[in-house]
Amino acid sequence: MCTRLSILVLLASVSMYGQVVRDTIWMNDYDAVVSKREATSFKIIKQDPKDTLKVHLGLYDKKTKQLKTSGYGVLDETGTQLTLKKASIYNTDGVLKFTNTFTTNDNIDKIYTTDARTGEQYECLFLDNNPYNGKFFFLENGKYIYMEIINGQNVTSALINPNNLNNRIEFKSIDKDKTSEEYYDESGKLLYTTILKNNNYYNGTRVDLFKKQFKIKSIENRTEGQVNNITQYYTTGEIKTKASKEGDKYTQIFYNKEGEIIGQQSFIQFLDRVIEKEGTMYSYSAEENEDDITIASYYEKDKLVRIDSYYTSPNKNTIEVSTYLKKGADFGFDKIEYFNKEGILHGVATFDEKGVNVLNGTDYKKGNKTVTKDGLIVEKTIYYSNGNIFQFTKDLVSTFYDTKGKEIGKVTLNKTEDPDKLYNTGTVFTMEDDLIIQVSTYKDGLTLTDKVYNIDNEISQLAIEVSYKKGNPYITTLYYTNGKKAIEYIYGMKDYSTLAKGTFYKDTGELIGTYDYIYETGTLVKYTDNLEIVSIETTQDGQPLTKKEFGIYGEDKILTEPSYYVYAYTDYNKSGETYDETGEVLSFTEYREGKPYEGLVYNFDTENNLATETSYKEGKKVDKETIRNTETNETISVNFYEEGELIKVATYNEGILFKIAEYKNGELEGTTSFFSPDNKLTSTVSFNENLPIEGTYIYKQENYLVKTTFKDKNRITKQIYYIDPTSGYETLVILEKYIDNNTFNRSVYDQTTGKLIYDYSVKENVLEGLFKHYEADRLKHQATFKNGKISGGTVAIIDFNFDPTTDSHEDYPNHTVITKSKNTYHITIEDEAKKELLNMQIKETAGDNSYNALFNTPLLIENLYPYNQLNNTPSEWKTYAPIKAGDLKPNILDSLF
What we know:
This protein is mainly β. The chain has a 66-stranded antiparallel β-sheet.
């Protein structure tokens, strides 16, 4: 129900305290730490002046500096763990919404609110971070929200008009599957009632409110889940749209505030698709001003022929761009018209015969201006957000300006369509979010210099500088954030791809040393991606002499900054020592000929929080090599050696033995055994020369348990279980049955309900044969595939442009439904509410269809909609991987399986 969802979202904001860090921390809307430029809020923590273990926390809006959340917690004696005690959440106007206290494990314990109607104080007890017993009442988005919960069940709740307490929407539980929703007018009279079944509106008439005020946005009537009619309103009360149904046909009429008809559309709802669309459809803003038109779509005989996009508040709500689609074609454009903020036409771009490239005219894409003549760009203007010109290009000259209009540089251009050969002589500036991110200089078509700037702190800070000779990189310089030089690399004069020399500096500007990469001689400094020094090594002719390694102390401290210390120093011709943060020696090892000879060696991997303890005798590894997590001190793995040869590896999960694998000659050989948390043997698999022969191999990957069964060297089945992090309960989410190593049938199940979602076959990493998609235990889509391409039926995908290697499915709010019948493709684009945005047909012709990716590109399994992370190619869930003992690292087998 909408009230419950909104409250849970508000309570989720308290989780900002789950990852407390020092100083001012910039956060995005998802409570993730980001750069200042990307942030929407910032977090500040302060130590209490009277109690050194008490910490005050505040979350503020970046733009308004308005306090959003405040609270406090108590540190443990180490200063690394914070136990939350209290937090208060505020509205955007600074008014307190509610206050909550916490349990010892940082879960919400109770929430305290005040009923603005009566002044009564409410208390609500939480269980597992969910409301369990009690009441609460607060103001949110121009509405009072009231809820009463008994034993985890929402008994009654309401949205109330703050300006008239009689005017409200009440939600009441009827039984576990049904809820009633009742709307009362300003006099308190019941006007509308609707019944929800399984949280879906089913029967009756419901009222929807505007996002940030208690005003009627729409009134909708349904019978058995089917919409009969809808009336939508402007925020000022006038009718915005009326939609009604007659048979299978819906008609929707759009009005302006004067009551005049501005458009009308009709369509037929066929199963889950909208077809036979005709007329004009308007879409309205979901942001601040919900009265603003954002898009108008024009349909003729079920084909989209024109799209108008509009300026929105605070601008005048007039057409910004009119896009005319190519008539008689399945894709492409005829022309695009651009209008200024007063609604006056100020640019027209016409397209070539294919409807892809601008042929003539002026276009204003992304607010910039481009003039094209006979397919060639003759003038281009790029603007800052304040409307001033950043770059103006005409007659093969580009001139650049700062935000105030002052010229900062210019460059002459070559007459070419190749962007790599565009610039001739001068200076080129690149801008992002009104900040300079790169400055490049050219002469006679060759690059002289590049300067790259970091803009994370909302200013342009020099980060990298590259000098070129004959167009090739010669010197590359990296800078600290304080502007001091960090590293200078010089490349070989004859082979510019070969690194010749490196010079390294501290962040104070002090020289550390230089290194000759060709002769492998000198002082070599290694850094993290943030230019923090990891190690300093000296070598002579490729032979290591000394190495000093640095660790971070106090990184987990909440109130103090971390400090660096030397955790290891090695003289490769004498000895090596490791130290703790106080300088006390932890281990001593004798070295001969640059290698450990006798003693105990500690090796720290600060990037992955790993510590390795290895025993050497006469230059060989002996006994046990133990690898631990430096944060938890839990054992990750123990490697057993005899005379320098690996014979066995014991792997642990959260400190509990999970697997023991036998090795011979550096390869898996013999039996690999798997154990339950209570140390009972659960499965074995035999290996020969690094290949599985017989048995079931088990491994964990995050919250998943993967079981792969082999017989006679062949993979038979793979089962993947989701492990609930709270209960530990295992739910089957993938079952794969293999025909051969490259062909299998996969069934994908919901990790919460265990119900079947997808069933399909895969051959050579693409879909092959019958595909089925289920929704709520019913078959939703079915199709057949050959070599990954649909040959008949219906399938839903995220987007034709979706690339799982670079894109997130969250960046695609819409999805596409493809239906193929004979040689015709029916393409429908729908939004999250399954409202149709585009409907078109494409036919395969007898001629050359190679230009159309739809006919020739296999559908990626990851592209299936709705998105499910288990829909992936087999490489994502590897079964086993040969590995040599010399490559052995903690859990490397499990990461490869």
